[in-house]
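Input.
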Amino acid sequence: MPVLRVRKGKNEGEAFAVFSRKLPTVIGRGEDNEISLDDNRSSRRHAQVLLAWGNWLLKDLGSSNGTLLNGEKVDKARLADQDTVQVGNTLMTFEEHEEFPTPRREIYGSQLLETAREESGLFVYNAYQSALDRPVRVDLFASGQLPSGELLETVKSAVDSASNLKHDLIEGVITSDFSDSSKSYLVQRSHGGVPLGDQLEDLLADEPLETRLQLVSQLLAITLEKCRAAPGICGPLGLDQLYLHPAADGRKSLSAAALELPTLLSTRNGSLCHLPAYTNYLPPEFCGEEAGEPALPEKSMAYSAAAVSYFLLTATPVMGEGDAREILRKHQELKPAPASLINPDIPEELSELLSQMLEKEPAERPSTAELIEPVIVAIENNQDVVEIKGDFREEATPADVKPAEKAAPSPGAPPPLAAKSSPIPAITRPRLESNPGPGLATLPLWAILWGGLFFGSWKASHLLFKIFMP
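Output.
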């Protein structure tokens, strides 16, 4: 999470959050700025920092004394990690991945432990409820960032919908209260898992396809449940919204937040296309600079769920590599290759479903039970087949051989051979393929005799008759 940390000036030692939203973070001596400095040489609105297409930009706002980036005066420039920014007499360092200090306070009986991330003017904290002995997640509006008017009513409506959502794989809402800025938070249960984004690299490197298929099955179930039960809270997914944790049976399990306030706000204020965490999974309708809230949010969720699933199965982002602007353009224009073309072991019916969910036109994407559930069932059935194959043994050892039940001989059948002391070896496929066919020893006796009559001398034939027909 980016911060500007003051190294020199009257605010020395303070760290100010830089918000990842469409509106810029303004720096100056004005009290209504996000970064308000005690500096007489700073203009009231001196400079601003803005996240655009995955890049941080610094822009001077026509200040009297100018803005310095790494000691050089700039009007507009790209801002990188550990760059220095000077506004008036205040020198600050831009720390792109610094953890913002966690407030020392309790929210609804939950002690805030660490700052997970910031999005669109909201902080996401990992917290702990001691009374119920369980981890929780808290989404908290930053000071002065609580929305108002129609947007606030939209937030309240979405929270009400999420509070009624019941599903084993979806974390539920515990409480919410947006009546004033001091209670502008959302608390949700947590399974104690780790965000999928933090484990994705190890997951792709170490886990077999069967494990990743199982996670995709759970992701499709989460998508289906949200779209079916509360379409109003559906929206694009990012890896930070999905949590990976061990299940009771030893497998890996996937869960999702019932509602994420950061994503909800980002879809409505136009910030989503600028956030790097969503770039690889963003539906085309969100990729434009002026993109707004979609008419069919469940279709947007279907697209992003398919994009996450595609990455999990193929280890390749659905739109490949490139900078944020290029990838967003590909989402709008490029049709990805079928997943089964990259990895032939991916079930064809799943690959086809993902291709349909990645359609550019929202109305063409499947998001209903009758189209998604059969594929989920097929994946689960395939898991059972794989487990059975894993227990298969090509050849039985003597200890494994069991006596066969005696069957009544058919009429005219030869008497059964006497049992030998050693077990009959199993015939494997290589032996069957290498069998040279019938030899001379297997020819009937009459064939040998007549061969002697036609191809041998009379005496040789006579001798054969004496030997075999005394």
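The radius of gyration is 35 Å.
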